[in-house]
Design goal:
Helices cover about 70% and strands about 0% of the residues. By secondary structure, it is an all-alpha fold. Helix 6 packs parallel to helix 8. The two termini are about 60 Å apart.
């Protein structure tokens, strides 16, 4: 494939055609060609020293080919350079760089964007020192007044600023000042460009330096803020979103810069929190939590609460296109799809975890304006406490009293708001808690599944206080009604409600502890009924609820009538799962809690459980050395979960564990004979 004369490198026509043909087949949706075979051929070609020269030639010069083929060539080049760039002959490196620079101003924006990505990879690998011509080329493009060249250079700069911002804030031999000092004034100029793409790219690039705060930006802060205020009402939503992002980042890490302008910034954020574009409104909504977390004087925000709180409540109503509305109709009898099963990570009961999940009514879906607004209301309630109730409660009451099927989203948002303030405003709500709980319990049976699910979550937010009041007759009756209501919803036919009810019940269990004992039989019957009907994703939450119940009631669980309900289904599942099935993780965790709770009462189940744990650990140790011959991939979570269960067994059985260890050791010795 190589052509003669590297300095004046030219591709051979035959090689060029063959690579283009392969790339075309690779990206074609209609091609019947074997994609893996094509990939292997391209990988074989990459053994030729000048293969990457061909790729950059196709990207930069093959104007007769489709943009898609040229882009595919560029993306393959980018991936190759990540591993091969430093091993390439300097002449080939130079050829690739010399072809990329003129292509910064390519006529097609997709080509320009791909070139910017490759430029960033080369700078990442070799730094600016390894490409002295780049800075001048970028400056020339930015100063050219040609839109394609300006956009191409800005695209490359924005990617460098996003991936490796620090390289522009380093001294470069031969330059009188750092690159950031050269580029920053030009970026500020582009804030006022008539072209939305340049305004967006320049603002996005500067925003990347807020965390680093190089001295060039620090000393130009007034100019930056002036630029932000100019762009604040930009007609392009993406620009307004970046303005909001800048204010959020500044309030988080450098609030002192905003303090002189705080009233204007807050007024602006109130305005854009109602933006017609949800992404702009979401970015603006992040400001309120960031402000409170920055521990700035709460007085500055207090006067705006009567205007802010209604906006937050309005944004907590489900949007018509919220994906949760589709999920809400999921029938509990339908098997989960693979994408429904989130990766799960074991939290050791003995060693703790830094990754505790937030309690959230809707943790399975993406972060959105509704959730951000609820989180902001939660934070504000913790800062201002009962002060927000005179503004908030009339709106909640109005939404709750809205009748008719068409108003269900308003009612749902009001229940969410009650849950959000359940911690911060508890002093003001406490005298009315009995009424609130009495109002929530019937909503557990609402015809709309999302009202049923949010009511479970909101009830769980008041669990502590529901349990506290159970010491007197009326309080106990309410506690029992709430408990039975959640148990009913655990057996709901809707997956979303099942998830919310099970999570809420686990929270109630933690607070109630021994108060659950009189209802233990009926609780176990409901949980094991759910165990029999749930699909895989929600089954994990049932395991958690069973484990939490065992932790809560301890030795009270050690009664034959309870064990007959609890253990047979768990043992059947235990026997059904293989030693390499990840569905074993939550079951192992569940058994850990049960073993600790039952103490010596677990003896009748201990031997097979102990043996299985040891088998799993041995299998994983072998898989770490030779996964092929063992037939399973190594996964340390199996070892961690098994060790935790062995710790739970030891804690529960006490000296009774010795006979198991002895029997296992004896069997091991016999096996080696």
């Amino acid at each position: 494939m190589a052509a003669t004369g590297i300095a004046s490198w030219q591709p051979q026509e035959e090689g060029l055609k063959e690579i283009c043909r392969l790339l075309e087949q690779q990206i074609s949706l209609s091609s019947s060609a074997d994609k893996s075979q094509i990939w292997q051929q391209l990988q074989q070609y990459s053994q030729f020293p000048d293969f990457n020269n061909y790729l950059v030639f196709i990207l930069a010069r093959a104007e007769g080919k489709s943009v898609e083929i040229r882009q595919a060539s560029g993306l393959l080049l980018k991936n190759n350079l990540r591993t091969a760039y430093k091993l390439m002959p300097p002449a080939h490196q130079q050829y690739i760089k010399s072809e990329l620079l003129p292509s910064l101003g390519a006529a097609d924006k997709h080509i320009r964007s791909t070139v910017g990505t490759i430029v960033t990879v080369i700078v990442q690998i070799g730094g600016l020192l390894g490409w002295p011509e780049l800075l001048q080329a970028l400056v020339n493009c930015l100063d050219s007044n040609d839109l394609n060249h300006m956009e191409g250079a800005m695209d490359a700069l924005s990617k460098i600023s996003e991936d490796i911002p620090q390289v522009l804030d380093l001294d470069v031999p031969g330059l009188a000042e750092r690159p950031i000092n050269i580029f920053l004034p030009r970026l500020f100029q582009f804030f006022q460009s008539p072209h939305a793409s340049l305004r967006k790219l320049s603002l996005g690039s500067v925003n990347q330096y807020i965390m680093l705060m190089p001295s060039a930006l620090y000393t130009s802060m007034d100019k930056y803020l002036q630029g932000l205020f100019i762009l604040a009402n930009d007609p392009t939503a993406e620009v307004r979103k970046l303005v909001c992002s800048a204010f959020v980042q500044l309030i988080e890490v450098h609030p002192s810069f905003l303090e002189p302008h705080l009233k204007n910034v807050i007024e602006y954020m109130l305005q854009v929190n109602k933006d017609s574009d949800d992404e702009v409104a979401l970015e603006a909504c992040e400001f309120w939590s960031a402000y409170c977390d920055a521990q700035l004087p709460s007085e500055n925000l207090r006067e705006y609460l009567p205007r802010l709180i209604p906006i937050l409540l309005s944004n907590m109503v489900y949007a018509d296109d919220d994906e949760s509305l589709l999920d809400a109709e999921e029938d509990g009898s339908l098997p989960d799809r693979d994408q429904d099963l989130k990766p799960r990570f074991h939290t050791s009961r003995f060693h703790g975890s830094e990754d505790a999940e937030d309690d959230d009514d809707d943790s399975f879906n993406v972060w959105n304006l509704r959730k951000c607004s609820a989180a902001a209301l939660d934070v504000l309630s913790n800062v201002f406490g009962d002060e927000i109730l005179p503004t908030l409660m009339p709106i909640i009451q109005a939404k709750l009293s809205a009748s008719g099927d068409e108003a269900w989203k308003d009612r749902e948002a009001a229940v969410l708001a009650l849950g959000a303030i359940g911690e911060g405003c508890i002093n003001g709500l406490y005298p009315h808690l009995s009424e609130i709980v009495s109002f929530l319990i019937p909503l557990l049976d609402d015809k709309f599944p999302l009202i049923r699910s949010i009511s479970c979550w909101t009830l769980s937010r008041f669990s502590k206080y529901i349990v506290q009041d159970s010491g007197h007759q009326k309080g106990y009756e309410q506690f029992d009604t709430a408990l039975m209501g959640l148990l009913r919803r655990i057996l709901d036919t809707n997956k979303r409600v099942q998830e919310a009810a099970c999570s809420a019940f686990a929270t109630l269990e933690e607070e109630a502890a021994e108060e659950l004992v009189p209802r233990l039989e009926v609780i176990l019957q409901h949980l094991m009924c759910a165990f029999g009907k749930y699909q895989r994703r929600n089954l994990r939450i049932v395991y958690d609820a069973i484990g939490t119940l065992a932790d809560a009631v301890g030795g009270e669980l050690n009664q034959p009538v309870y064990l007959e309900i609890l253990m047979p289904p768990l043992i059947a599942k235990w026997q059904q799962l293989s030693n390499s099935d990840k569905d074993l993780f939550p079951l192992l965790e569940c058994f850990t809690s049960i073993a600790q709770a039952l103490g010596t009462g677990f003896s009748q189940f201990a031997q097979p459980v102990f043996q299985r744990c040891m088998d799993i650990i041995q299998t994983q140790q072998l898989a770490k050395v030779d996964p092929v011959s063992v037939g399973v991939q190594y996964d340390k979570e199996f070892i961690v979960c098994s060790l935790d269960l062995l710790s739970g067994l030891t804690e529960g059985l006490g000296s009774g564990i010795e006979s198991l260890v002895f029997a296992f050791s004896f069997a091991l010795v016999e096996k080696k004979k």
